[in-house]
Each structure stands twice: as structure tokens, then as C-alpha cells.
């Protein structure tokens, strides 16, 4: 959100955010010893800025208040807890090294004391966007200083959509001017499932385009000038999700077998629509898939996520972005796009094949 001069409201600082790949400075909670392949890592306590992976999940931890904030990465995969005291600003959480359209199930507790958020948090590139799907927050609504763009329904609840501009602020790409997108849940909760695609589509329909998912997506706790605590588990109790975290943590066996591709229109408006193509690998798995999408007359793709494309005439050929290039047998991935133009007839999808 935009900075505010009102002392009664927190000034949200866009941080930005740890792009180094190592574990950074951290303190182990006990003597871990040498880990054998496949062995779960012991609990780890973070007190200084850090990113990395822990038990198959990506983590990010940032604070401008050293010593008064800690985040403990549990020995249970996908779980963390946090405590902060009189912190100026901090944010941390667990998730994936690349964002995507996915269902994120989480459970836990969130006790912000005063100002704080429990949110699914991430960034996109081209355009550079910092986004929040806020599930719970303290007395201050973090979107209220922005411009309201409408609502979206997800998981049985209604979210208010806001957009803000950050001018010459730190980001994952250095100091830049960029947009912040917010979905703020009207009925607060600390457990549930977030369908990220519902929010991405609603933002797009509201004139808030998403970019490429080149950066992380985490279920984050954030505190601002407050004292509090949280405990969060991904996968509905800390179990490893059915779809492994993307970004190279797990690499399925390479294959060159068949795949199938199916299309659906996820949302539409007067002069455009969003489409999604789901790719499913056959029994042999597949590497470097490609899918041709034939557009109707007057249709132009204005943005694409979870894929890269080339165009010849009215045919758009989509290939992986890297982290979803290899699918094991039966595994699925998807890419999406926004089209300017009539929604009928729908684009047609050709045969999925190895690249």
C-alpha cells in the first residue's frame, strides 16, 4: 500500500526481499549433525535475513529489527512458528521458490497483538508486482490505503481487492516503481484453502495484470510495530503436498512420452477473457512439453503465465518456463493467458507433445 503520514496507521515498508540463494545467517536449534540423503532436517531457528529450502519447502525471512524476531522451521515438513516483540517490521514464511496457480491448504494460529498480516505472499516479473492474499490481520486493514478494485469469492469467503503503487522502493529486482495487489478476506481466518487462480483471474479482470512467476510464493506472517506470534502448517497439518514444491527441490524422472492438454475459460468480461490449459503427462512422463493454442479472429494474447510462447499467425505455441518442464507419469501442470478480444469462439488446443 502507499505510505501514509497518519501516525495512527502503519507505514508498510516494501522490503526486498532477499534474492540470494544461500541460507544466510541462521542459528540451529540444537546440534543437527550430518544429514543423510532423504533425512528430515531438524528444527532451525532464524533470527537474521535468510532464504533457502528446509524439508522440501522454500523459506524466506526478513527483518529490520535484529534480535526481537525469530522464526522456527519445524522438523515437520511445511511447518513453522514465529515470535516477535516490539518489532518495527518483519516478514517470513514457507512455500515455493516459484509462484503458480495452485491450491494452498494451510492451518495454524495467528496472534498479531496489533498490526500484522497472515497472507499468501509473492512477486511476479514483467510486470513487477508484489501481491498479498490476506487471510487474517490485526486492527489495521493493509489494503485500505490503496484503491479498491472490487471483490472476489474464494473458499466460501469474500475478499476485497485493492491496488497500490510503490514508487522507487526496494524490490526483488532492486529499487523500482511497481504495483501491489491485495485480496483482503472480509471474514478473517487462520486455516483454510486458497485457490490462487481465483484471485489472479479477478485481479486480471479488474485491470491488474500479473507477470511471470519467476519469484517465490510463501504462506507468510508479517508484523509491523507490534508484538505477536504465529504457527503455520502447509498441506493441512504439515504433510508434504501432493504436488511437490517447484523450483528444483524435486526432479521427476525425465521422459519423452505422450501428454494431454485441455482448455477452459476461467473468467471473461466485455472485451476479453482468461484461459487456462492443463497438461497431464502420460505413463512414460514427459520433458519439455509443447502445446499449440489456435486463436480465433480478433483475439490477441496480452499476458501469459507459467509458460513461454512463440507465435506464428494465429497459433501460439507454449513451452515450459523451467520449473515445470519435466512431468512424471500422471503429473499435471498448467499455464494461463489473458486474451483481448471476443470470448467466442474459444481458443482451440492442439496435441500436447514432447519439445
From TrEMBL:
GO molecular function: hydrolase activity
Biased composition range(s): Low complexity: 245-254
Coiled-coil residues: none
Protein name: endo-1,4-beta-xylanase
UniProt EC number: 3.2.1.8
UniProt keyword list: Carbohydrate metabolism, Glycosidase, Hydrolase, Polysaccharide degradation, Xylan degradation
Pathway stated in the Swiss-Prot or TrEMBL entry: Glycan degradation; xylan degradation
PROSITE patterns in the cross-refs: CBM2, GH11_1, GH11_2, GH11_3, TAT
Keyword Ion transport: no
CBM2 domain boundaries: 252-355
Organism in which the protein naturally occurs: Streptomyces poriferorum
Reactions accelerated catalytically: Endohydrolysis of (1->4)-beta-D-xylosidic linkages in xylans
Protein family: Belongs to the glycosyl hydrolase 11 (cellulase G) family.
Xref: InterPro entries: CBD2 (IPR001919), GH11_AS_1 (IPR018208), GH11_AS_2 (IPR033119), GH11_dom (IPR033123), Glyco_hydro_11 (IPR001137), TAT_signal (IPR006311)
Region (Disordered): 228-254
Domain GH11: 45-235
Pfam family membership, one: CBM_2
Annotated active site: 130 (nucleophile), 222 (proton donor)
Domain of life: Bacteria
Amino acid at each position: 500500500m502507499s505510505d501514509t503520514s497518519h501516525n495512527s496507521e502503519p507505514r508498510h515498508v516494501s522490503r526486498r526481499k532477499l534474492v540470494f540463494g544461500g541460507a544466510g545467517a541462521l542459528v540451529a536449534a540444537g546440534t543437527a549433525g550430518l544429514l543423510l540423503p532423504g533425512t528430515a532436517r531438524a528444527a532451525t531457528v532464524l533470527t537474521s535475513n535468510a532464504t533457502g529450502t528446509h524439508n522440501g519447502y522454500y523459506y524466506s525471512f526478513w527483518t529490520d529489527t535484529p534480535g526481537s524476531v525469530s522464526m522456527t522451521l519445524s522438523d515437520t515438513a511445511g511447518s513453522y512458528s514465529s515470535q516477535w516483540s516490539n518489532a518495527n517490521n518483519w516478514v517470513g514464511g514457507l512455500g515455493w521458490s516459484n509462484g503458480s496457480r495452485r491450491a494452498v491448504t494451510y492451518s495454524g494460529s495467528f496472534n498479531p497483538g496489533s498490526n500484522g498480516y497472515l497472507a499468501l505472499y509473492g512477486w511476479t516479473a514483467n510486470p513487477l508486482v508484489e501481491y498479498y492474499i490476506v487471510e487474517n490481520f490485526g486492527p489495521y486493514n493493509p489494503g485500505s490505503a490503496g484503491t479498491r478494485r472490487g471483490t472476489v469469492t474464494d473458499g466460501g469467503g469474500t475478499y476485497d481487492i485493492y491496488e497500490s503503487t510503490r514508487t522507487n522502493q526496494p524490490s526483488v529486482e532492486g529499487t523500482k516503481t511497481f504495483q501491489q495487489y491485495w485480496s483482503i478476506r472480509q471474514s478473517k481466518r487462520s486455516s483454510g484453502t486458497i485457490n490462487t487462480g481465483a484471485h489472479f483471474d479477478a485481479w486480471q479482470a479488474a485491470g491488474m495484470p500479473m507477470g511471470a512467476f519467476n519469484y517465490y510464493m510463501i504462506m507468510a506472517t508479517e508484523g509491523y510495530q507490534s508484538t505477536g506470534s504465529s504457527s503455520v502448517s502447509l498441506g493441512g497439518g504439515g504433510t508434504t503436498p501432493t504436488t511437490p514444491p517447484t523450483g528444483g527441490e524435486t526432479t521427476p524422472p525425465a521422459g519423452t512420452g505422450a501428454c494431454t492438454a485441455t482448455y477452459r475459460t476461467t473468467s471473461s468480461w466485455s472485451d476479453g477473457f482468461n484461459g487456462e490449459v492443463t497438461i497431464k503427462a502420460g505413463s512414460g512422463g514427459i520433458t519439455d512439453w509443447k502445446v499449440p493454442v489456435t486463436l480465433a479472429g480478433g483475439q490477441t494474447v496480452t499476458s501469459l503465465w507459467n509458460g513461454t510462447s512463440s507465435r506464428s499467425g494465429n497459433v501460439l505455441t507454449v513451452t515450459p518456463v523451467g520449473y515445470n518442464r519435466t512431468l512424471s507419469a500422471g503429473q499435471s501442470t498448467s499455464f494461463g493467458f489473458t486474451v483481448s478480444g471476443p470470448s467466442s469462439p474459444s481458443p482451440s488446443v492442439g496435441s500436447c507433445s514432447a519439445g
